[in-house]
Write a structure and sequence with these properties.
By secondary structure, this protein is an alpha+beta fold. The protein has one domain: 2-Layer Sandwich (GTP Cyclohydrolase I, domain 2). It has 4 helices and 4 strands; from the N terminus they run E-H-E-H-H-E-E-H. A 4-stranded antiparallel beta sheet has the order 1-2-3-4. Helix 2 crosses helix 3. It starts with 21 loop residues before the first strand and ends with a helix.
């Protein structure tokens, strides 16, 4: 008769690193600027609404005494305002691409989802717009 020798093995799961996720939100940020391809859009400013979700690296912790220890959403919104003041855009897509350039200047940012809408562009529509998601690798590769 054959004897079975079984050994009990305990498998311990490895603790996942960086299970904390920090996200910076900018919700319904509104600017009024000239944007579009139609003649009336090149004359009259219109409302542009930004919604942005920013995934931040977990390698640094916020320091209450140091603003530069966090991603500064006021700095980002000021950059977005300046984009439309300093350049004319025909397309929301172009504005989104330039927005990525500004936001990814902060190396702590891993990914960004940008949604930009024009609520007054199309009659009988609440809004029209674009939404684009990029990881840092996507951005640096483009």
């Amino acid at each position: 008769m054959q004897k079975n020798n079984f050994k009990v093995v305990e498998i311990k799961s490895k603790k996942l690193k960086n299970t904390v996720k920090r996200t910076v939100l900018i919700k319904d940020f509104i600017i009024n600027e000239i944007i579009g391809i139609h003649e009336h859009e090149k004359v009259n400013k219109q409302k542009i609404i930004f919604n942005i979700v920013i995934d931040v690296s977990q390698n640094t912790l916020p320091d209450e005494n140091n603003l530069s220890s966090v991603v500064d959403y006021e700095k980002i919104t000021n950059k977005l305002k300046n984009l439309t003041k300093n350049k004319s855009y025909n397309f929301l897509e172009s504005l989104a691409e330039d927005s990525f350039k500004e936001i990814f200047e902060d190396k702590r940012i891993n990914s960004v989802k940008i949604k930009i809408e024009k609520p007054d562009a199309i009659l009988n529509a609440k809004s029209v717009g674009v939404e684009v998601f990029k990881c840092r690798d996507d951005y640096e590769g483009s």
